[in-house]
Amino acid sequence: MESTLVRSCRMSRVLQKQWFLLSLVALIATGLWLGAHVDGEIRQAVNRVIHPRAITAIVLFLMAFSLDSHHLKQSFRSPKPVLWGALVNYGLIPLLGWSLLPLQQSEDFRIGLMIAASVPCTLAAASVWTRKAGGNDAVSLLITIATNAACFLVTPLWLELTIGGDVQLPLPIMMMQLILSVLLPTALGQIVRQNMAAERFAVRHKTPIGVAAQCFILSMVFTAALDAGERIHATAAGTTILGVAIVWGSVVLLHVIGLAVALIGSRKLGFARGDCAAVAFAGSQKTLPVGVLIATDRTMFGNPDLLGPGMGAPFAVFPILMYHASQLFIDTAIADRLAAGARREQDSQDSQEL
Predict the structure, then answer these.
(1) Whose CA is closest to 115, among 331, 324, 272?
(2) Taking a C-beta distance cutoff of 8 angstroms, is the pair 142, 82 a contact?
(3) Is the dihedral of CA 41, 43, 46, 48 positive or negative?
(4) ∠ Cα 345 125 342 (to 5°)
(5) Does residue 237 surpass a pLDDT of 60?
(6) Eight-class DSSP state of 297
């Protein structure tokens, strides 16, 4: 009886920690199957209800609203860690992604890899992992806000530079959509939080707000899987195991190299330990909702005629899903190691003082 209870408690803890990733896998599989079997009118009805731009705006507003920005002034006074983190996130990682394009086995994955490499830092996870590692979450927060604020300009320019020769990009339209769906909701979320009553609400309900934002993201992923399933059924197009392995290995490589360069560079530049941890996570992590938006919105890479009449790129969304899932697992282990190192250093200092 006791062992059954223990197993049940362990399973409950796993579900609480990993419910998002488990839901991600389940909805992708379900969406692919339904996309290949349900009537086209049903898919169109789902797409009308779950609109990527509107959902992304809601998600980023909720995530920005839940971010505590009270400690940003200190990071503004010493901006070097923020600049280094932003440079890794928006400079090194897109360059690495560009170098890996020739290895990809399909045009969808080439597009998706560059989308994953070019989007900004994730809004909430970087600060969460920074705190787990005992780092300075004010630095990670400022890198997050800075990269998301510049997203409307930097991300389209990287995509135009790297894959613009293969895909005709509506650059001005993309920039305007990112301003409306990313920049404005993020700014509005922080503006609303400045109200004292709103701030108390955000602090009190931080977990439910985060869960709601993740549920909206899952709805976008489901519609993307529906479209991909329809493409497989209609054209017999698919992906090979080798192609999936290469693109997944590519996004893991991007994240690991970005994290290592951000961390080692921070130490070489003489940043404080807490700042090094913040730069490592915020400099290497990438946001899911913005990547899904760019990959699925019909005014961007969700255009069903993107690669020619009737030739869209429905699998372009998968590299950003792979990147996001991989960074959650990798950074959990890294955060634990950095936290252990911080504790050993503190214990050493305490013993020396004694």
Answers:
(1) 324
(2) yes
(3) negative
(4) 0
(5) no
(6) -
Residue 353 located in a structural domain: no
Identify whether 51 is part of a domain.
Answer: yes
Domain that holds residue 217: 40-342
Does some domain include residue 2? Answer: no
Nearest to 301 by CA among 177, 144, 149: 177
The DSSP output letter for 239 is -
What secondary structure does DSSP assign to 112-167, as a single string? Answer: HHHHHHHS---SSHHHHHHHHTT--HHHHHHHHHHHHHTHHHHHHHHHHHHHTTTS
Tokens of 7: 């197993």
Note whether 313 and 301 are within 8 A (CB). Answer: yes
Per the CB < 8 A criterion, the answer to whether 286 and 115 are in contact is: no
Ramachandran angles phi, psi of 195, nearest 5°: -70, 130
Backbone φ and ψ for 110, nearest 5 degrees, come out as -65, -45
Q: Is residue 325 part of a domain?
A: yes
Q: Which two tokens stand for residue 69?
A: 């920005």
Number of H helices, E strands in the chain: 18, 0
| 148 in Cβ contact with 120 (< 8 Å) | yes
Tally of domains within the chain? 1
Burial class from Cβ neighbours inside 10 Å (0-12, 13-18, 19+) for residue 180 reads: middle
Distance (Å, whole) CA 282 – CA 292: 19
CATH of residue 112's domain is: 1.20.1530.20
Task: Give me the pLDDT at residue 1, please.
Answer: 47
Beta-carbon contacts of residue 152 (< 8 Å; ≥ 6 apart): 175, 176, 178, 179, 182, 183
User: Burial of 74 by CB count in 10 Å (0-12 exposed, 13-18 middle, 19+ buried)?
Assistant: exposed
What Å distances lie between residue 220 and 80, 151, 294, 296, CA to CA? 36, 20, 11, 9
Q: What are phi and psi of 307, to 5 degrees?
A: -100, 10
When pLDDT is averaged across residues 324-342 and rounded to a whole number, the result is: 85
What pLDDT digit, counting tens, does each position of 145-203 carry?
Answer: 899 989 999 999 999 999 987 777 778 888 998 998 888 998 898 899 888 899 899 88
What is the rounded CA–CA span in Å between residue 100 and residue 246?
10
